[in-house]
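Write out the 3D structure for:
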Amino acid sequence: MINKKGMSGIITAVIIIGIALAAVGIVWYVINTVTQEQAANVENGSANVYKSCNETGSFKMNTTDTCNQTIKYTGGEKCCTGPVTS
């Protein structure tokens, strides 16, 4: 007669619970990291909502002006980081 041995039900249950906890931990870590990064982006972006171009060291642009630098929208104004040409 061949003596067959296998894992007991208790050991199998403990392994499955451990795998489930590890999966939940990994998912939580990923979600937590993504939400913290997005929250930081929102905070950085909303910092300029109440400022004007002059307060950020930029030049306010009119609709006909051209900018050879970076254009940013600050406090509802269109601002250029460099000199503005009409």
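The two ends are 97 Å apart (CA to CA).
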